[in-house]
Amino acid sequence: MHHIDQDLFLGKVSGFLGGYFLFVAVMNAVAAFYLWRTGRSKELFRVGGLPVTTALFWLAIAMILTIASAFAFGGTPWGMPLVLMDFADWLMSPVVYTVGSLAVLSLMFVARDFFVRPFVAWSGLNIALFLMGLSMTDQDFYSIVGKPDNVPIVGMVFLLGYFTWLGAYKAVINDRRIANGEEPLEALDKEKVLVWPDLVYTELICMVALTALLIVWAIVLKAPLEEPASAVKTPNPSKAPWYFLGLQEMLVYYDPWMAGVVLPSMVVFGLMAIPFLDFNKKGNGYYTIADRKFAYVTFQFGFLVLWVTLIVMGTFLRGPNWNFFGPYEAWDPHKVVALNNVDLSEYFWISALGQARPKAPSDASTAVQLGYILLRESPGIVLLLLYLGALPPALVLYSRFFRDLFVRMGFLRYMVLSNLLLMMMLLPIKMVARWTVNMKYFIAIPEYFLNF
Amino acid sequence: MASLGEIIRESQIWKSVIRHPMPVDRRNRVVVMLTNFFLHLHPVSIKKQGIALSYTWCMGGVTFFLFLVETITGVLLMFYYRPTLEWAYNDILALRDVTSLGLLREIHRWGAHAMVITVWLHMYRVFLTGSYKPPREFNWVVGVILLLLTLLMSFTGYLLPWDQLAIWAITVGSNMARATPFLGYEGPGAQLLSVDGIDMITNASDARFGLLGARFVGEETLNRFYVLHCIAIPLGVALLLAIHFWRVRKDGGISAPM
Question: Which CATH superfamily is domain B55-159+251-258 in?
Answer without folding.
Answer: Cytochrome Bc1 Complex; Chain C (1.20.810.10)
